[in-house]
TrEMBL record:
It comes from the Bacteria. Belongs to the metallo-dependent hydrolases superfamily. Phosphotriesterase family. The lineage of its organism: Bacteria, Bacillati, Actinomycetota, Actinomycetes, Streptosporangiales. Keywords: Hydrolase, Metal-binding. It holds the Pfam family PTE. Gene3D superfamilies: Metal-dependent hydrolases (3.20.20.140). This is Phosphotriesterase. SUPFAM superfamilies: Metallo-dependent hydrolases. Transmembrane segments: none annotated. The keyword Hydrolase applies. The modification N6-carboxylysine is found at K147.
Length: 326
């Protein structure tokens, strides 16, 4: 039986069940937190809040929570382990990679192909491979997928380097890939072309945030490459409302694309991008941006619009299982 690594060890992929494919427990920069977090971060309060939110989404029937928080987004596995211990009914799958819209890590500016310390393969890629093959730091937790970000339509050399390092680690390990993209700028096109040139298996690639777009030409072009569309920002109404997001999924299901979509919210218990009162701001401006919106509201809306139980199961259970099957 194929297995996938989770925070609490290897799990049979057949047991992943209903899966949210792109959520963060936290998105909090570690260096920022350590130096400037005194006014807004209470470790015990934040951990207790996360435990409560994860228990609650598990009670809705979600069995697996896929967290693409990597370096650049404040990945800190010991805190996730501590939380998962208190929510054993939920599988949490963690990632490796790098999240930045313009640069590769400055620690690697001198080391790598063609640099002062000319190293091939890229030592950045070797770090990603180690996270997957041996585990992250000394936590004993192995990353099960790779993450990179392509936000701007004309990616910098730093972004291209990170994407190529992710492709290398994918080829070495077979771990699947999730890419943050800007759907309005259609940056998925660039990264699909790059990953194809790097001989990646595009059926093991999620083009994240595709659901921010309703452009069916773009979405079907992506899906026809074999890639999965991340319909993964439900509740982020500022980018696109839930009825609009639902309408696009319905249209794609009608065209036979249920096998090419996964569902999620891209939500988090805390993110440090909105000042000191994230939860207050979220509850006021985007009250549906939480882990349960899909089960509470989106699935009923999809059923109401005629999407079959089979297609819902395909998006929520079968596609994630196939993605994590190596
Ligand atoms: Zn995200």
């Amino acid at each position: 039986m194929p297995t996938v690594e989770t925070v609490r060890g290897a799990v049979d992929v057949a047991e992943l069940g209903p899966t949210l494919m792109h959520e963060h427990v936290f998105f909090v920069g570690t260096e920022y937190l350590q130096n400037y977090g005194a006014g807004w971060w209470d470790e015990e309060e934040r951990v207790a809040d996360a435990i409560e939110r994860l228990r609650s989404v598990a009670a809705r029937g979600v069995r697996t929570f896929v967290d693409p928080t990597v370096w650049g987004g404040g990945r800190y596995i010991p805190r996730i382990q501590r939380i998962n211990e208190q929510v054993p009914e939920l599988n949490i799958i963690v990632a490796t990679g790098y999240y930045h819209y313009t640069d590769a890590p400055i620690q690697f500016m001198n080391r790598g192909p063609g640099l002062i310390f000319d190293e091939t393969p890229d030592p950045l890629a070797r770090e990603f491979v180690r996270d997957i093959a041996e585990g992250i730091a000394d936590t004993g937790v192995k990353a099960a997928f790779l993450k990179c970000a392509v936000e701007h339509p004309d990616p910098t050399p730093g972004v291209e380097r990170v994407c190529r390092a992710v492709a290398y680690a994918h080829r070495e390990t077979g771990a699947p890939i999730t890419v943050h993209t800007n759907a309005h700028q259609q940056t998925g096109r660039w990264v699909v072309d790059l990953l194809r040139a790097e001989h990646a298996d595009l059926t093991k690639v999620v083009i994240g945030h595709s659901g921010d777009s309703g452009d069916l030409d773009y979405l079907t072009w992506l899906a026809d490459t074999g890639a999965l569309l991340g319909m993964d920002r439900f509740g982020l109404d500022a980018f696109r409302t839930t009825p609009e997001r639902v309408e696009t999924i319905v249209a794609l299901c009608e065209r036979g694309y249920a096998e090419r979509m996964v569902l999620s919210h891209d939500a988090m218990c805390w993110i440090d991008w909105f000042g000191d009162d994230f939860t207050g701001i979220r509850d006021q401006l985007m009250p549906n941006w939480h882990y349960e919106h899909i089960h509470n509201d989106v699935l009923p809306a999809l059923r109401e619009a005629g999407v079959s139980e089979k297609d819902i199961g395909t998006m929520l259970v079968d596609n994630p299982r196939r993605y994590f099957t190596r």
